[in-house]
Write a sequence for this structure.
């Protein structure tokens, strides 16, 4: 499948809050788990306390709405459920 047809993730993070490292770590986790199944993981600088994760433009997680940051396991499950529901995430699926 060409890269342009693969799902794309955006992680918008607050530059004022210095959340770049958190966003980069989350991007690394997603790219490691979905290495050939994602076309792109983009870091998008924002302001005002934003930390949002989108898949193909669909909001998957909002720090403001949830009043917390996402767990990497949680994001992996949200993405997996949309792009490959049958996929086993190994330890990320265990409670």
């Amino acid at each position: 499948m060409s890269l342009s047809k693969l799902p794309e993730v955006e992680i918008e993070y607050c530059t004022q809050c210095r959340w770049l490292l958190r966003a980069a770590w989350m991007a690394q986790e997603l790219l490691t788990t979905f290495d050939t199944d994602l076309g792109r993981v983009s870091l998008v600088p924002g302001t005002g306390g934003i930390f949002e994760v989108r898949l193909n433009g669909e909001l998957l997680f909002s720090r403001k709405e949830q009043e917390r940051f996402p767990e990497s396991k949680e994001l992996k499950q949200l993405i997996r459920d949309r792009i490959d529901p049958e996929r086993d995430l190994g330890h990320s699926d265990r409670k």
Notes: The longest strand covers residues 8-14. The helical segments are 20-33, 63-66, 72-83.
